[in-house]
Specification:
The chain has about 475 residues and is an alpha+beta fold. The protein has helices spanning about 10-25, 30-45, 50-55, 75-90, 115-120, 140-150, 160-170, 175-190, 200-210, 210-215, 235-240, 305-320, 330-340, 350-355, 365-370, 380-385, 400-410, 425-430, 440-455, and strands at about 70-75, 95-100, 105-115, 125-130, 225-230, 265-270, 270-275, 285-290, 295-300, 360-365, 390. α4 (about 75-90) crosses α7 (about 160-170). The structure holds 2-oxoadipic acid and nickel (II) ion.
């Protein structure tokens, strides 16, 4: 008799919960932040019925409380190849390619996440996953040494590998296997206070780049933050100090707006943690900073056209005001951001009509009732009559400029080196053993599918949108 398999959605939910529990004991400030975010979110939903209604309609209301993203940094192609297979067990796939070397961080990255709407609404757990680019270490001796250290480590337990293989062969895992898989997979993300290298090696890696020391010196790719989603990032940022948490000076991403777009993020400084070095006769202690806290607020996904405008506006602000160490000019930066972003329409309807953002269409009950008679064959007329509704599709991905800012604020602002290099997506995909999915294509498909279904429900199958140029 075939055994019943547990859904990938459920495995992902169990894993997210286990990860959250683990991180809460590892980093107590994370628990504090979760409480603060829950409080602020509850207040937002109470005070803003329109927001509540919009989230409910989009099926997002239930996911907010469990929504988290984490980040890990891997050292080898093999590690990346296997993490893809591990995340596949939980229904997560690689979406997007982010080159951070241009911002002086020697990694390139992708985001593992669920892609279909139903899965996203159950639990949209994402992991920003970076691969160290050892070829960017200039010192050949050091590069060889780092390679040799990484080649020796095994970041997955043998049992985790066996369960991944079983999932691949059988097409799923049973309840008992899932319980084991969650516990075994978690081991890869656990913090280890014992470095695998001596204090002297650590220092040389650290001098090349703090990030290199973080990736190479440990037994595994400890999860370095776990981020809850807030509905009001400004409120959480303002209230962090009440709870003894100091946020970074500016919120990354777009300014506060009526219609939220993309992603806004802020983080608090990494903890300075005691570590014990290996290889010395007497245990030598040191400290390492890797793990930090972050919160995010998500808005509508932008089309290629909207994104180009976003990138241009952000670049113009950053060209005008450079926030200094310690947050100098943070106020001027925020003001400039608000000012310049006035060029991007702040109404859902304008964003939609100008093809700047993605929306999910649905037939209203009034529309379905009216469909017994002839309806106008123009989507704009259907919207005007209240027969066709639309709601923003939330942005599920990351922003490279913001990610670089998050990396840098945790590496210390003194590390602004830039690598004279180009991105290497091909090498990343070869290591991954798959192509990364194009996030814009995923949003476009969801918009188109929703429109088709709505038109079908209105008896107008095949009707297309006309957008303003
Ligand atoms: C990842 C930093 C990027 C985000 O939210 O943009 C990130 C890392 O520090 O490993 O998590
Ligand atoms: Ni993050």
């Amino acid at each position: 008799m075939p055994q019943a398999f547990v859904s990938t959605d459920r495995i992902r939910s169990l894993f997210t919960e286990a990860m959250s529990q683990m991180y809460r004991t590892e980093v107590p400030q994370y628990g504090t932040l979760i409480e603060l975010v829950a409080e602020v979110n509850a207040g937002c939903l109470e005070n803003d019925p329109e927001l509540r209604e919009r989230l409910a309609r989009a099926g997002e209301l239930e996911r907010i409380d469990v929504e988290r993203h984490g980040a890990i940094r891997l050292g080898t192609a093999d590690e990346l190849f296997t993490i893809r297979r591990l995340f596949a067990v939980m229904g997560m796939q690689a979406v997007g390619y982010y080159d951070l070397s241009v911002a002086g961080v020697p990694v390139h990255s992708t985001c593992f996440r669920p892609i279909d709407e139903a899965a996203l609404n159950v639990n949209p757990f994402r992991v920003f996953t970076s691969l160290l680019r050892l070829e960017l270490i200039e010192d050949e001796g050091l590069r060889g040494e780092a390679e040799a250290i990484l080649a020796k480590r095994r970041i997955y337990t043998p049992r985790a590998i066996a369960l991944i293989e079983r999932h691949e062969q059988n097409g799923g895992l049973t309840e008992a296997e899932v319980t084991e898989f969650v516990a075994e997979a978690l081991e890869t993300f656990r913090w280890h206070g014992e470095a695998t290298v001596s204090a002297e090696t650590y220092k040389r890696l650290h001098d090349a780049h703090r990030l290199i020391a973080d990736v190479v010196s440990f037994k595994g790719p400890h999860i370095n933050h776990l981020t809850p989603r807030t509905l009001d990032i400004d409120a959480v940022q303002a209230r962090m100090p009440e709870r003894g948490i100091t946020p970074k000076a500016v919120i990354e991403g777009p300014p506060r707006r009526h219609c939220d777009i993309l992603l806004r993020q802020t983080s608090f400084k990494a903890l300075e943690e005691t570590i014990i070095f290996a290889g010395d006769a007497a245990a030598v202690q040191g400290t390492h900073t890797a793990r930090f806290g972050e919160i995010e607020q998500r808005g509508v996904a932008l089309t290629a056209k909207g994104r180009a405008l976003y990138d241009r506006l952000l670049a113009s602000v950053r060209g005008e005001v450079q926030v200094g160490a310690g947050g100098a000019k943070a106020g001027a930066y925020d003001n400039e951001l608000v000012e310049r972003f006035k060029a991007l329409p702040d109404s859902w309807d304008e964003l939609r009509r100008q093809d700047l953002a993605f929306f999910r269409y649905s037939a209203t009950s009034a529309g379905i009732a009216a469909a017994v008679n002839t309806l106008p064959d123009d989507p704009e007329a259907l919207i005007a009559k209240g027969y066709l509704a639309f709601s923003p599709i939330v942005y599920e991905d990351f922003l490279p400029v913001s990610a670089a800012g998050i990396f840098q604020s945790n590496l210390g602002t003194d590390q602004q080196q830039n690598y004279a290099t180009h991105s290497n997506r091909d090498a990343f995909e070869v290591a991954l053993g798959a192509s990364v999915q194009d996030e814009l294509a995923l949003y476009a498909e969801r918009q188109a599918a929703s429109l088709d279904a709505a038109m079908e429900a209105l008896g107008l199958a095949g009707l297309q949108l006309k957008t303003v140029a």
